[in-house]
Write a structure and sequence with these properties.
By secondary structure, the protein is α+β, with helices and mostly antiparallel strands. It folds into four domains: 56 residues; 84 residues, conserved putative lor/sdh protein from methanococcus maripaludis s2 fold (Beta Barrel), CATH 2.40.420; 97 residues, Elongation Factor Tu (Ef-tu), domain 3 (Beta Barrel), CATH 2.40.30; 115 residues. The protein contains four helices and 21 strands. The strands form three sheets. It has a six-stranded antiparallel beta barrel with strand order 4-11-14-13-12-15. Helix 2 runs antiparallel to helix 4 and helix 3 packs antiparallel against helix 4. Strand 1 and strand 2 form a beta hairpin.
Amino acid sequence: MRLFGARFAPTLRNSRLIVVQNGPESLLFYLDDIDSMNLYRMKWACWTAAVATAFLASGCSNSQANSAKAGFSKPVPVHIYSVAEETTRRRVQAVGSLLALEESTLSAQVEGRVDQVLVDVGDLVREGQPLVLLDQRELQFEVDRQRGIVKQVRAQLGIGPTDPPPPTDQKMASVQRAEADLFDANRKYGRAREMFKDNLISQQQFDEAGSRDQSAQASYNLALQDVDRLKALLISSEASAALAEKKLADATIRAPFSGAVQTRNVHPGEYLRLQSPVLVLVRTDHLRARLAVPERWAGWIKDGGVVDLHVEAFPGETFEEHISRINPTVTQDSRTFEVEALLDNKAGRLKPGFFVQASMPSEKEDKAVFVPEKGVNYRYGVYKVFVVSGNRVVEKQIRPAGQTEDQRFEVAEGLKAGDRVAAPVSGDLHDGDTVHEQPAEASPSVK
Protein backbone atom coordinates (compact mmCIF):
# COMPACT_ATOMS: atom_id res chain seq x y z
CA MET A 1 0.00 0.00 0.00
CA ARG A 2 1.29 3.45 -0.84
CA LEU A 3 0.22 6.44 1.13
CA PHE A 4 0.60 9.72 -0.71
CA GLY A 5 0.91 13.00 0.99
CA ALA A 6 -1.62 15.72 0.35
CA ARG A 7 -1.89 16.48 -3.34
CA PHE A 8 -3.76 19.58 -4.04
CA ALA A 9 -5.79 20.02 -7.20
CA PRO A 10 -8.01 22.91 -8.24
CA THR A 11 -11.72 22.21 -8.38
CA LEU A 12 -14.79 23.97 -9.63
CA ARG A 13 -15.46 25.19 -6.12
CA ASN A 14 -12.00 26.66 -5.82
CA SER A 15 -11.10 23.98 -3.25
CA ARG A 16 -8.13 21.72 -2.79
CA LEU A 17 -8.09 17.88 -3.11
CA ILE A 18 -6.15 15.40 -0.96
CA VAL A 19 -5.58 11.91 -2.49
CA VAL A 20 -4.74 8.71 -0.53
CA GLN A 21 -3.92 5.75 -2.80
CA ASN A 22 -3.89 2.01 -1.85
CA GLY A 23 -2.96 -0.08 -4.88
CA PRO A 24 -5.52 0.62 -7.56
CA GLU A 25 -7.89 2.32 -5.13
CA SER A 26 -7.78 5.97 -4.12
CA LEU A 27 -9.49 7.97 -1.42
CA LEU A 28 -10.31 11.63 -2.12
CA PHE A 29 -10.91 14.34 0.45
CA TYR A 30 -11.90 18.00 -0.24
CA LEU A 31 -10.53 20.74 1.90
CA ASP A 32 -12.30 24.10 1.92
CA ASP A 33 -10.39 27.32 2.26
CA ILE A 34 -11.20 28.65 5.69
CA ASP A 35 -14.36 26.80 6.86
CA SER A 36 -12.84 23.27 6.66
CA MET A 37 -10.55 21.53 9.14
CA ASN A 38 -6.97 22.49 9.25
CA LEU A 39 -4.43 20.64 7.20
CA TYR A 40 -2.85 18.80 10.12
CA ARG A 41 -6.05 17.14 11.19
CA MET A 42 -6.79 16.22 7.65
CA LYS A 43 -3.49 14.42 7.20
CA TRP A 44 -4.08 12.39 10.43
CA ALA A 45 -7.51 11.32 9.19
CA CYS A 46 -5.98 10.21 5.92
CA TRP A 47 -3.36 8.13 7.68
CA THR A 48 -5.99 6.37 9.86
CA ALA A 49 -8.16 5.53 6.88
CA ALA A 50 -5.19 4.08 5.02
CA VAL A 51 -4.17 1.82 7.89
CA ALA A 52 -7.75 0.49 8.32
CA THR A 53 -7.95 -0.28 4.64
CA ALA A 54 -4.67 -2.21 4.82
CA PHE A 55 -5.87 -4.39 7.74
CA LEU A 56 -9.16 -5.19 6.04
CA ALA A 57 -7.34 -6.29 2.93
CA SER A 58 -4.92 -8.43 4.92
CA GLY A 59 -7.77 -10.12 6.83
CA CYS A 60 -9.65 -11.01 3.69
CA SER A 61 -6.48 -12.43 2.20
CA ASN A 62 -5.81 -14.70 5.26
CA SER A 63 -9.43 -15.90 5.38
CA GLN A 64 -9.27 -16.92 1.76
CA ALA A 65 -5.99 -18.74 2.36
CA ASN A 66 -7.37 -20.68 5.37
CA SER A 67 -10.49 -21.62 3.44
CA ALA A 68 -8.39 -22.94 0.63
CA LYS A 69 -6.20 -24.89 3.05
CA ALA A 70 -9.27 -26.49 4.70
CA GLY A 71 -10.62 -27.45 1.33
CA PHE A 72 -7.42 -29.28 0.41
CA SER A 73 -6.59 -30.84 3.94
CA LYS A 74 -5.12 -34.35 3.88
CA PRO A 75 -7.62 -37.13 4.82
CA VAL A 76 -7.12 -38.65 8.27
CA PRO A 77 -6.54 -42.45 8.25
CA VAL A 78 -9.16 -44.16 10.38
CA HIS A 79 -10.61 -47.56 11.22
CA ILE A 80 -14.33 -47.75 10.47
CA TYR A 81 -16.65 -49.91 12.56
CA SER A 82 -20.26 -50.72 11.87
CA VAL A 83 -22.98 -50.59 14.53
CA ALA A 84 -24.88 -53.87 14.92
CA GLU A 85 -28.07 -54.87 16.70
CA GLU A 86 -27.85 -58.26 18.40
CA THR A 87 -29.74 -60.44 20.85
CA THR A 88 -27.70 -60.59 24.03
CA ARG A 89 -28.04 -62.37 27.35
CA ARG A 90 -28.08 -59.76 30.05
CA ARG A 91 -25.49 -59.62 32.82
CA VAL A 92 -26.41 -58.15 36.17
CA GLN A 93 -24.08 -55.34 37.17
CA ALA A 94 -23.59 -54.56 40.86
CA VAL A 95 -21.15 -52.80 43.17
CA GLY A 96 -20.20 -53.37 46.77
CA SER A 97 -17.33 -53.84 49.21
CA LEU A 98 -15.11 -56.59 50.54
CA LEU A 99 -15.61 -57.45 54.19
CA ALA A 100 -13.61 -59.63 56.55
CA LEU A 101 -15.04 -63.09 57.12
CA GLU A 102 -14.91 -62.45 60.88
CA GLU A 103 -14.34 -59.17 62.73
CA SER A 104 -14.21 -59.18 66.52
CA THR A 105 -13.67 -56.40 69.02
CA LEU A 106 -11.79 -58.03 71.89
CA SER A 107 -12.61 -56.61 75.31
CA ALA A 108 -11.42 -57.11 78.88
CA GLN A 109 -13.32 -59.74 80.88
CA VAL A 110 -11.64 -58.74 84.16
CA GLU A 111 -10.49 -55.47 85.62
CA GLY A 112 -6.80 -54.80 85.96
CA ARG A 113 -3.77 -52.85 84.89
CA VAL A 114 -2.29 -53.56 81.44
CA ASP A 115 1.09 -55.21 81.94
CA GLN A 116 2.14 -55.98 78.35
CA VAL A 117 0.78 -55.49 74.81
CA LEU A 118 2.32 -58.23 72.69
CA VAL A 119 0.97 -57.26 69.22
CA ASP A 120 0.35 -54.18 67.13
CA VAL A 121 -1.67 -53.14 64.08
CA GLY A 122 -1.05 -55.39 61.07
CA ASP A 123 0.44 -58.29 63.00
CA LEU A 124 -0.69 -61.76 61.99
CA VAL A 125 -1.78 -63.90 64.93
CA ARG A 126 -2.71 -67.53 65.49
CA GLU A 127 -5.74 -68.84 67.31
CA GLY A 128 -5.05 -68.89 71.06
CA GLN A 129 -1.99 -66.64 70.82
CA PRO A 130 -1.58 -64.22 73.80
CA LEU A 131 -2.21 -60.62 72.74
CA VAL A 132 -2.46 -58.54 75.93
CA LEU A 133 -1.36 -59.39 79.50
CA LEU A 134 -2.97 -57.83 82.59
CA ASP A 135 -1.47 -57.69 86.09
CA GLN A 136 -2.22 -61.13 87.60
CA ARG A 137 -1.05 -60.80 91.22
CA GLU A 138 -4.39 -59.96 92.83
CA LEU A 139 -6.15 -62.60 90.77
CA GLN A 140 -3.56 -65.17 91.81
CA PHE A 141 -4.19 -64.38 95.49
CA GLU A 142 -7.90 -65.02 95.03
CA VAL A 143 -7.18 -68.35 93.36
CA ASP A 144 -5.03 -69.42 96.30
CA ARG A 145 -7.73 -68.41 98.80
CA GLN A 146 -10.44 -70.37 97.03
CA ARG A 147 -8.23 -73.43 96.74
CA GLY A 148 -7.63 -73.29 100.51
CA ILE A 149 -11.35 -73.31 101.19
CA VAL A 150 -11.77 -76.35 98.96
CA LYS A 151 -9.05 -78.22 100.85
CA GLN A 152 -10.68 -77.36 104.17
CA VAL A 153 -14.07 -78.69 103.10
CA ARG A 154 -12.57 -81.87 101.69
CA ALA A 155 -10.76 -82.45 104.97
CA GLN A 156 -14.04 -82.12 106.86
CA LEU A 157 -15.61 -84.65 104.51
CA GLY A 158 -12.66 -86.94 104.95
CA ILE A 159 -11.74 -87.14 101.25
CA GLY A 160 -8.52 -86.41 99.38
CA PRO A 161 -7.74 -83.51 97.01
CA THR A 162 -8.92 -85.46 93.97
CA ASP A 163 -11.41 -87.88 95.54
CA PRO A 164 -15.09 -87.53 94.65
CA PRO A 165 -17.63 -86.75 97.40
CA PRO A 166 -18.83 -89.84 99.36
CA PRO A 167 -21.77 -91.50 97.58
CA THR A 168 -23.66 -92.24 100.86
CA ASP A 169 -23.79 -90.34 104.13
CA GLN A 170 -23.38 -93.54 106.22
CA LYS A 171 -19.73 -93.78 105.31
CA MET A 172 -18.90 -90.51 107.01
CA ALA A 173 -17.17 -90.89 110.42
CA SER A 174 -19.40 -88.35 112.09
CA VAL A 175 -22.49 -90.09 110.80
CA GLN A 176 -21.21 -93.52 111.90
CA ARG A 177 -20.56 -92.21 115.43
CA ALA A 178 -24.00 -90.62 115.63
CA GLU A 179 -25.53 -93.83 114.30
CA ALA A 180 -23.74 -95.89 116.98
CA ASP A 181 -24.94 -93.54 119.74
CA LEU A 182 -28.46 -93.81 118.42
CA PHE A 183 -28.31 -97.59 118.36
CA ASP A 184 -27.08 -97.70 122.00
CA ALA A 185 -29.74 -95.23 123.13
CA ASN A 186 -32.49 -97.28 121.44
CA ARG A 187 -31.40 -100.49 123.21
CA LYS A 188 -31.21 -98.80 126.61
CA TYR A 189 -34.58 -97.21 126.12
CA GLY A 190 -36.07 -100.62 125.23
CA ARG A 191 -34.67 -102.28 128.35
CA ALA A 192 -35.82 -99.38 130.50
CA ARG A 193 -39.35 -99.75 129.17
CA GLU A 194 -39.47 -103.44 130.07
CA MET A 195 -38.05 -102.79 133.52
CA PHE A 196 -40.52 -99.98 134.11
CA LYS A 197 -43.38 -102.32 133.31
CA ASP A 198 -42.08 -104.71 135.97
CA ASN A 199 -41.67 -101.81 138.40
CA LEU A 200 -37.96 -102.41 138.57
CA ILE A 201 -37.04 -98.76 137.87
CA SER A 202 -38.61 -95.49 138.78
CA GLN A 203 -40.47 -93.15 136.46
CA GLN A 204 -37.56 -90.75 136.52
CA GLN A 205 -35.12 -93.38 135.32
CA PHE A 206 -37.49 -94.36 132.53
CA ASP A 207 -37.89 -90.74 131.42
CA GLU A 208 -34.13 -90.22 131.39
CA ALA A 209 -33.69 -93.26 129.09
CA GLY A 210 -36.32 -91.86 126.73
CA SER A 211 -34.63 -88.44 126.63
CA ARG A 212 -31.25 -89.99 125.82
CA ASP A 213 -32.88 -91.92 122.95
CA GLN A 214 -34.45 -88.76 121.47
CA SER A 215 -31.15 -86.86 121.84
CA ALA A 216 -29.27 -89.60 120.01
CA GLN A 217 -31.84 -89.50 117.21
CA ALA A 218 -31.43 -85.72 116.90
CA SER A 219 -27.64 -86.03 116.86
CA TYR A 220 -27.88 -88.60 114.08
CA ASN A 221 -30.12 -86.36 111.98
CA LEU A 222 -27.81 -83.42 112.62
CA ALA A 223 -24.82 -85.49 111.43
CA LEU A 224 -26.64 -86.29 108.21
CA GLN A 225 -27.50 -82.62 107.66
CA ASP A 226 -23.92 -81.58 108.34
CA VAL A 227 -22.67 -83.99 105.71
CA ASP A 228 -25.14 -82.57 103.20
CA ARG A 229 -23.99 -79.06 104.12
CA LEU A 230 -20.34 -79.99 103.58
CA LYS A 231 -21.16 -81.54 100.21
CA ALA A 232 -22.92 -78.37 99.10
CA LEU A 233 -20.06 -76.24 100.45
CA LEU A 234 -17.61 -78.38 98.51
CA ILE A 235 -19.49 -77.76 95.27
CA SER A 236 -19.69 -74.00 95.97
CA SER A 237 -16.03 -73.68 96.96
CA GLU A 238 -14.87 -75.66 93.94
CA ALA A 239 -16.99 -73.44 91.67
CA SER A 240 -15.52 -70.32 93.31
CA ALA A 241 -12.03 -71.73 92.84
CA ALA A 242 -12.78 -72.48 89.18
CA LEU A 243 -14.16 -68.95 88.70
CA ALA A 244 -11.04 -67.47 90.26
CA GLU A 245 -8.89 -69.58 87.96
CA LYS A 246 -10.92 -68.42 84.96
CA LYS A 247 -10.45 -64.78 85.91
CA LEU A 248 -6.75 -65.44 86.23
CA ALA A 249 -6.74 -66.96 82.74
CA ASP A 250 -8.82 -64.03 81.41
CA ALA A 251 -6.04 -61.71 82.48
CA THR A 252 -4.30 -63.01 79.36
CA ILE A 253 -6.33 -61.86 76.33
CA ARG A 254 -5.92 -64.38 73.50
CA ALA A 255 -6.85 -64.47 69.83
CA PRO A 256 -10.20 -66.26 69.28
CA PHE A 257 -9.22 -67.13 65.70
CA SER A 258 -6.32 -66.76 63.30
CA GLY A 259 -6.25 -63.36 61.65
CA ALA A 260 -4.68 -59.93 61.75
CA VAL A 261 -4.83 -57.00 64.16
CA GLN A 262 -6.86 -54.14 62.70
CA THR A 263 -7.00 -51.74 65.67
CA ARG A 264 -5.10 -51.41 68.95
CA ASN A 265 -6.78 -49.42 71.73
CA VAL A 266 -4.59 -49.96 74.83
CA HIS A 267 -1.08 -49.30 76.06
CA PRO A 268 0.94 -50.66 78.99
CA GLY A 269 0.02 -49.08 82.32
CA GLU A 270 -3.63 -48.35 81.51
CA TYR A 271 -6.31 -49.64 83.86
CA LEU A 272 -9.03 -51.58 82.10
CA ARG A 273 -12.61 -51.82 83.27
CA LEU A 274 -14.93 -54.67 82.40
CA GLN A 275 -15.77 -54.82 78.67
CA SER A 276 -13.24 -52.14 77.78
CA PRO A 277 -12.31 -52.54 74.07
CA VAL A 278 -8.74 -53.70 73.64
CA LEU A 279 -8.12 -54.85 70.05
CA VAL A 280 -10.03 -55.38 66.81
CA LEU A 281 -9.13 -58.67 65.13
CA VAL A 282 -10.15 -59.57 61.56
CA ARG A 283 -10.05 -62.86 59.73
CA THR A 284 -8.89 -62.35 56.15
CA ASP A 285 -8.13 -65.82 54.80
CA HIS A 286 -11.62 -65.60 53.33
CA LEU A 287 -13.49 -62.40 52.46
CA ARG A 288 -17.14 -61.57 51.96
CA ALA A 289 -18.03 -59.69 48.77
CA ARG A 290 -21.25 -57.94 49.76
CA LEU A 291 -23.01 -56.53 46.68
CA ALA A 292 -26.02 -54.24 46.22
CA VAL A 293 -28.22 -55.54 43.37
CA PRO A 294 -31.13 -53.47 41.97
CA GLU A 295 -34.50 -54.95 42.88
CA ARG A 296 -35.54 -55.44 39.23
CA TRP A 297 -33.06 -58.33 39.04
CA ALA A 298 -34.52 -60.17 42.05
CA GLY A 299 -36.08 -62.83 39.82
CA TRP A 300 -32.86 -63.54 37.94
CA ILE A 301 -30.35 -63.96 40.79
CA LYS A 302 -30.02 -67.51 42.10
CA ASP A 303 -28.10 -68.94 45.05
CA GLY A 304 -24.91 -70.65 43.83
CA GLY A 305 -24.72 -68.59 40.64
CA VAL A 306 -21.39 -67.47 39.19
CA VAL A 307 -20.20 -63.93 39.90
CA ASP A 308 -17.18 -62.18 38.34
CA LEU A 309 -15.53 -59.68 40.65
CA HIS A 310 -13.14 -56.82 39.79
CA VAL A 311 -11.17 -54.53 42.11
CA GLU A 312 -9.20 -51.40 41.24
CA ALA A 313 -6.07 -52.72 42.93
CA PHE A 314 -5.73 -55.43 40.24
CA PRO A 315 -7.09 -53.97 36.98
CA GLY A 316 -7.82 -56.47 34.26
CA GLU A 317 -7.94 -59.41 36.69
CA THR A 318 -11.19 -61.28 37.33
CA PHE A 319 -11.98 -63.14 40.56
CA GLU A 320 -14.62 -65.77 39.81
CA GLU A 321 -16.69 -66.97 42.76
CA HIS A 322 -20.20 -68.21 43.53
CA ILE A 323 -23.12 -66.57 45.30
CA SER A 324 -23.36 -67.96 48.83
CA ARG A 325 -26.14 -65.84 50.39
CA ILE A 326 -29.05 -63.70 49.19
CA ASN A 327 -30.76 -61.27 51.54
CA PRO A 328 -34.52 -61.92 51.46
CA THR A 329 -35.43 -58.23 51.96
CA VAL A 330 -34.99 -55.09 49.85
CA THR A 331 -33.58 -51.87 51.31
CA GLN A 332 -36.27 -49.23 50.86
CA ASP A 333 -33.88 -46.28 50.60
CA SER A 334 -31.76 -47.66 47.74
CA ARG A 335 -34.25 -50.22 46.34
CA THR A 336 -31.51 -52.85 46.33
CA PHE A 337 -30.99 -56.20 48.02
CA GLU A 338 -27.74 -57.71 49.25
CA VAL A 339 -25.96 -60.62 47.59
CA GLU A 340 -22.88 -62.17 49.17
CA ALA A 341 -20.06 -64.26 47.73
CA LEU A 342 -17.07 -65.77 49.56
CA LEU A 343 -13.56 -65.20 48.18
CA ASP A 344 -10.54 -67.33 48.94
CA ASN A 345 -7.83 -64.95 50.14
CA LYS A 346 -5.19 -67.21 51.65
CA ALA A 347 -2.53 -65.33 49.64
CA GLY A 348 -3.61 -62.07 51.33
CA ARG A 349 -3.79 -60.05 48.10
CA LEU A 350 -7.23 -58.63 48.77
CA LYS A 351 -8.05 -56.42 51.74
CA PRO A 352 -11.29 -55.74 53.59
CA GLY A 353 -12.79 -52.45 52.46
CA PHE A 354 -11.87 -52.77 48.78
CA PHE A 355 -14.49 -51.38 46.39
CA VAL A 356 -15.65 -54.21 44.15
CA GLN A 357 -17.53 -54.31 40.86
CA ALA A 358 -19.44 -57.46 40.03
CA SER A 359 -21.01 -58.98 36.94
CA MET A 360 -23.41 -61.90 37.16
CA PRO A 361 -24.88 -63.80 34.19
CA SER A 362 -28.64 -64.16 33.90
CA GLU A 363 -31.14 -65.94 31.67
CA LYS A 364 -32.74 -62.70 30.48
CA GLU A 365 -32.32 -61.91 26.75
CA ASP A 366 -32.80 -58.54 25.02
CA LYS A 367 -31.99 -56.87 21.71
CA ALA A 368 -29.24 -54.30 22.02
CA VAL A 369 -27.10 -52.03 19.85
CA PHE A 370 -23.34 -52.62 20.11
CA VAL A 371 -20.30 -50.76 18.86
CA PRO A 372 -16.63 -51.69 19.41
CA GLU A 373 -15.06 -49.94 22.38
CA LYS A 374 -12.32 -48.51 20.12
CA GLY A 375 -14.93 -46.35 18.42
CA VAL A 376 -16.14 -44.71 21.63
CA ASN A 377 -14.52 -41.63 23.16
CA TYR A 378 -15.02 -40.64 26.80
CA ARG A 379 -14.19 -37.10 27.89
CA TYR A 380 -15.41 -35.00 30.82
CA GLY A 381 -18.15 -37.47 31.68
CA VAL A 382 -19.59 -37.62 28.15
CA TYR A 383 -19.46 -40.51 25.65
CA LYS A 384 -19.06 -39.49 22.00
CA VAL A 385 -18.47 -41.15 18.63
CA PHE A 386 -17.51 -39.92 15.15
CA VAL A 387 -20.20 -41.02 12.72
CA VAL A 388 -19.05 -41.41 9.11
CA SER A 389 -21.05 -39.35 6.61
CA GLY A 390 -19.64 -39.63 3.11
CA ASN A 391 -15.94 -38.96 3.37
CA ARG A 392 -16.29 -36.84 6.51
CA VAL A 393 -17.07 -37.49 10.17
CA VAL A 394 -19.66 -35.89 12.43
CA GLU A 395 -19.15 -35.88 16.20
CA LYS A 396 -22.19 -37.25 18.06
CA GLN A 397 -22.98 -37.79 21.72
CA ILE A 398 -24.33 -41.18 22.84
CA ARG A 399 -25.84 -42.58 26.03
CA PRO A 400 -24.34 -45.87 27.26
CA ALA A 401 -26.52 -48.75 28.41
CA GLY A 402 -24.05 -49.81 31.09
CA GLN A 403 -23.01 -53.19 29.69
CA THR A 404 -19.70 -53.98 28.03
CA GLU A 405 -18.75 -57.44 26.85
CA ASP A 406 -16.09 -58.86 24.53
CA GLN A 407 -14.69 -55.34 23.93
CA ARG A 408 -18.07 -54.20 22.70
CA PHE A 409 -19.92 -51.17 24.03
CA GLU A 410 -23.70 -51.21 24.35
CA VAL A 411 -25.43 -48.00 23.27
CA ALA A 412 -28.82 -47.04 24.67
CA GLU A 413 -29.36 -43.86 22.64
CA GLY A 414 -27.60 -41.97 19.86
CA LEU A 415 -26.81 -44.74 17.35
CA LYS A 416 -28.81 -47.22 15.33
CA ALA A 417 -27.99 -50.42 13.55
CA GLY A 418 -26.13 -49.75 10.30
CA ASP A 419 -24.38 -46.58 11.42
CA ARG A 420 -20.63 -46.45 10.93
CA VAL A 421 -18.24 -44.93 13.42
CA ALA A 422 -14.60 -43.99 12.91
CA ALA A 423 -11.58 -44.21 15.18
CA PRO A 424 -8.28 -42.55 14.22
CA VAL A 425 -5.33 -44.81 13.51
CA SER A 426 -3.14 -42.30 15.35
CA GLY A 427 -3.57 -38.84 16.71
CA ASP A 428 -6.89 -37.09 17.17
CA LEU A 429 -10.04 -36.80 15.11
CA HIS A 430 -12.21 -33.69 14.94
CA ASP A 431 -15.71 -32.89 13.85
CA GLY A 432 -15.84 -32.34 10.07
CA ASP A 433 -12.50 -33.98 9.28
CA THR A 434 -12.07 -35.77 5.98
CA VAL A 435 -11.23 -39.41 6.61
CA HIS A 436 -9.69 -42.27 4.71
CA GLU A 437 -10.51 -45.85 5.74
CA GLN A 438 -7.66 -48.11 6.69
CA PRO A 439 -8.31 -51.84 7.31
CA ALA A 440 -8.47 -52.90 10.97
CA GLU A 441 -7.98 -56.18 12.78
CA ALA A 442 -10.64 -58.82 12.44
CA SER A 443 -13.63 -58.10 14.67
CA PRO A 444 -17.25 -59.23 14.69
CA SER A 445 -18.42 -55.64 14.30
CA VAL A 446 -15.73 -54.30 11.95
CA LYS A 447 -16.56 -53.34 8.45
